Amino acid sequence: MDLGSLLNFAGGIGLFLLGMRLMSDGLKVAAGPALRGLLATATRSSWRGVGSGVLITSLVQSSSAVIFATIGFVNAGLLNLGQAVWVIFGANVGTTLTSWIVALVGFNIDLQALAMPAIAAGMGLWILGKGRRSALGQALVGFGIFFLGLDVLKDSFAGLGDTFEIDGWVRDGAVGIAVFALVGAVLTVLMQSSSATLAVTLTAAAGGVLPLTAAAAMVIGAKVGTTSTALFAVFGATPAAKRAAASHVAFNLVTALVALPALPWILAGSQWLADALGFASQPATILAVFHTMTAWWAWC
């Protein structure tokens, strides 16, 4: 990878993170007190709690933001521990939507044709609108920048697999899987976004840079990396908030401890399921199925 490609890659990550931040912040402002009310009223049962976690995470594209907010609500006494645990589980499931966006939209649609109108319309609302309308415009701009970043990442990895051999960097088997899982976790901690790590991983796999097994290990590592958000949120928190954060850490660590040893078999099942459901048998699609399977299986 030459300097130009490296700078494009870094810029793509920057655009992706900026888009997610604008989209998340805009939607939270637009929702206003409704977000807090939704969490309070939609967590009266375990299924409602999971559903609200999935829905809100899918909308704001940030499980970290939802988990951080949920722990904050527990700390303030607005949610009890039981309600928070189900929302956190739902947030972990909801983050799988990022994988599907990358797999189904990122490689099948002209992303610039999707992004540019969103940015244009969003800026109009952001500048000319007020209150919630302006916040929705900000979210729409973030949506467009999100896809521009994905487009840059896709172009950065295109054709790179023919000239960039990563297979020989690590040993085969358990050691190689563990190394790539660690890379996924470290990237997530550094960028404070599992979605960004997933975008990088899926586009690298689609470009032939990452072997499928290595990419799957990074997906699991990204789940472990998100636990840093919960750990940051508990400083000075109440015992209930600390227990809520501990549930998130336990959920992802148990998922990793079970999924990593069984990774080749889960990955094979994901490929079979992708074919059975009629999805194109591409690396990004297989990884999206893999991510979804591990999230739902761990919750069930």
From TrEMBL:
Entry keywords, A to Z: Cell membrane, Membrane, Transmembrane, Transmembrane helix
Stored Pfam families: Na_Pi_cotrans (PF02690)
Leader sequence residues: none
Entry's transmembrane regions: 6-23, 54-78, 84-104, 111-129, 135-153, 174-192, 212-237, 249-267, 279-299
Compartments where found: Cell membrane
Superkingdom of origin: Bacteria
Gene Ontology annotations for the cellular component aspect, listed alphabetically: plasma membrane
Membrane topology category: Multi-pass membrane protein
GO molecular function, one term: sodium:phosphate symporter activity
GO biological process, any: sodium-dependent phosphate transport
InterPro entries according to UniProt: Na/Pi_transpt
PANTHER family listed in its UniProt record: SODIUM-DEPENDENT PHOSPHATE TRANSPORT PROTEIN 2B, SOLUTE CARRIER FAMILY 34 SODIUM PHOSPHATE , MEMBER 2-RELATED
NCBIfam families xrefs: Na_Pi_symport
Protein's UniProt name: Na/Pi cotransporter family protein
